[in-house]
Amino acid sequence: MSRVTTRSAIAFETFDRTLQKTIAFRPVVLGEDLQRLHQWMNHPHVIPFWKLNFSLGKFQDHLEKALSDSHQTLYIGLLDGVPMSYWESYWAADDIVARHYPALASDQGIHLLIGPPEYLGKGYALPLLRAMTRFQLQHPATEKIIAEPDIRNAKMIHVFERCGFVFQKPIALPDKTGALMMCDRTKFEERWGHA
After folding, report:
1. Which of 47, 124, 163, 186 is most buried, judged by most C-beta within 10 A?
2. CATH number of 10-192, picked from 3.50.7.10, 3.90.800.10, 3.40.630.30, 3.40.50.1820
3. What are the 10-residue block averages of pLDDT along the chain, 195 residues in total?
């Protein structure tokens, strides 16, 4: 697997003591990440929840549209420099999820997937989610992070809960029934500290 080549591309980096590994996030780059993300979207563990197992051309159109959407930023998650996860960090008030709760302009949301199957079941999801939540909370006005994983995805809901997200209610979204979950800055920092 290729390693990230320039540190300037890194948006956030932290050393996770539980894993003894460095977690980092860098913005998605179409030319660099298209093939990688297309491959990940076609893995059996991803297809049921993302439903983006398109042809490469159709997926490129989707990714270009997502990259041009100003309400979200797309990231590649790296573990010790190796790309292994995909993240969408979005402003909840500008998202369809805002129809389901009184979103503030500073609320952020998270979508994620772990790509390569060899990273599944190794205990990486919680440290990665904790790192992304900490990254989002660097925005001083943000007091709440939300998520809406597929209600059928019990494993991911459990990871969100362990991170500090609290289930609110099921919500009907265009592509799924989501489990609306919220993480409060104060409770997150009480659980995990400010560092």
Report:
1. 163
2. 3.40.630.30
3. 56 96 97 97 96 96 97 97 98 97 98 97 97 97 98 96 98 96 97 79
